[in-house]
Amino acid sequence: MEDVAREAGVSGQTVSRVVNARGYVGAATRKRVEEAMQSLGYRPNSAARALRSGRFRTLGVVMFSFSSYGNQRTLDAIAVRAAQLGYALTLIPVASSAKETVAGAFRRLEEHAVDGIIIVIEAHQLDEADVEIPAGIPVVFVDSNRGEEHPFVDTDQAQGARLATEHLLGLGHRTVWHVTGPARSYSAERRRDAWRETLESRGLDVPEPLEGDWTAESGYRAGVRLRETEGVTAVFAANDQMAIGVLRAFREAGREVPGDVSIVGFDGLPDAAQLWPPLTTVQQHPERVGALAVDALLAELDDGERRRTPLVGTELIVRASTAAPRDEEPAR
Fold first, then answer.
1. N or C terminus: fewer CB in 10 A for the chain?
2. What is residue 51's predicted lDDT score, i.e. its pLDDT?
């Protein structure tokens, strides 16, 4: 580091700030230091830095599934925010919530010497598996709720479901059918409960929800059942993939969307705008969730603060898949 400082014409402290990504260093100065490091072939000794600082500058992520759009975007945001703050990631994907599988993931992270762990697994799956969270290491949960035990970051699932349901009722539909996500999913549960409560608060009939598994195929199967059910004019699907399946089922049967039935999804898939008709959806913001999770974890690492983060809000994106039912005026 002394050689780098001499080559760049700066102090050793400035080199340390660049190497450890701590403190402010001007862009021109940082560039000189980085060029000196490259010229001299200097590589920071991460093991030595960890011994000196007590930090490994690495965060662990345990994730149950990469198949959902939200999880993919959340992981991307975690990686970007961690890199901005000078941290690397060690990712351990788990194929199931079985006790031995999740416990094995925690053991591997402890072996990799991470400073903290972000867990993107439904919390009740961990509860059912009776898995012990590693002691003495900061943990943050994403899209689940462990009460006061650990910080958690979540999308406001209930708000999004209310926006979708109220939009359809505001168009004049007498009730709204729902294709829900898996019964074991907290996200699906929150969306389903908010849909039901919105209908009940208005004294409207609450149809029996149809359960899917987040895939377009399960949405299609639900759509086939719904198109054979009398009086269905509005459907709220708990994610865009299932909404795509519902849309196909109705269009396949010659039913017009939105003329005969209006459909709303949830997630805000970029391709939802390219469907025909373009899909009305609830836009969530997993990029904010991922960044907040990293910030909450580092707040606990830096000063022991268990940060309570607000729920991340959603937005309704209205497109051409929803309209007033035939021969009905929008509700006022």
1. C
2. 43
